[in-house]
Design a protein that fits this description.
alpha+beta, Aminopeptidase, 7-stranded mixed β-sheet
Length: 211
């Protein structure tokens, strides 16, 4: 059956979001010592200069992504998480794309990120590479850490296609008073012998975000 993925601003009063973000911290806990874990908690994500979005498949929360300002023109990708039961369907790619579109629209010049160097983060690093990020030295307040991989993207260069490598179709946004809609359709492979999960009219709400 056709499904619609919607990306909107985060509502921190939503108990499902609070639980989803806590699950993200719980996922990170066994991967590295405390000094090498840099995920923002609920309070940190509500701080100044942080923009947070959530992805829903119908009423189900399936992903989050955030941008946090490091300095004028330079922001960090944070809280990138897809529901483990929904991984491999292109949701993470669309969340990254959404964040980059937002950053470019605000004339941010660079977006950087920190992720783990361990096998647990292999799929995340591949996602970021496909999205156009390249490895770089530590940035901001980070220091060299064998548990970390640092990546960055220069947004002053022409945008390259960012998206799932399957048959996505993105249409020109249909603008309304306070949002833009991007419609697309996709067939993303799933594990096993089941037929591909199909997204028909994947819809991203590019809504006004708080600073």
């Amino acid at each position: 059956m056709a499904r619609v993925l919607t990306i909107t601003d985060a509502d921190f009063a939503d108990p499902a979001l609070v639980a989803f973000l806590q699950a993200h911290l719980d996922d990170m806990e066994p991967t590295a010592p405390p000094e090498s874990r840099h995920a923002l908690d609920l309070s940190g994500l509500q701080g100044p200069g942080v923009r947070v979005w959530v992805a829903h498949d119908a009423a189900r929360l399936v992903g989050t992504v955030a941008l946090a300002e490091l300095e004028p023109g330079h922001e960090e990708l944070k809280s990138m998480r897809t529901d483990p039961a929904c991984r491999g369907q292109g949701i993470g790619t669309q969340l990254v794309k959404h964040a980059l579109v937002d950053a470019r629209g605000r004339h941010v010049q660079r977006v950087s990120l920190e992720t783990g160097s361990m096998e647990f983060f292999d799929s995340a690093r591949r996602l970021y590479e496909r999205s156009g990020f390249a490895q770089c030295p530590p940035f901001g307040s980070y220091v060299e850490d064998p548990n970390s991989t640092f990546m960055t993207m220069d947004l002053t260069t022409p945008a390259s296609p960012v998206g799932y490598t399957g048959p996505w179709r993105t249409e020109r946004p249909e603008k309304t008073a306070n949002r833009s809609w991007i419609d697309a359709s996709a067939a993303a492979p799933t594990s096993g012998s089941k037929a591909p999960t199909r997204f028909s009219g994947v819809r991203f709400a590019l809504m006004n975000s708080r600073a």
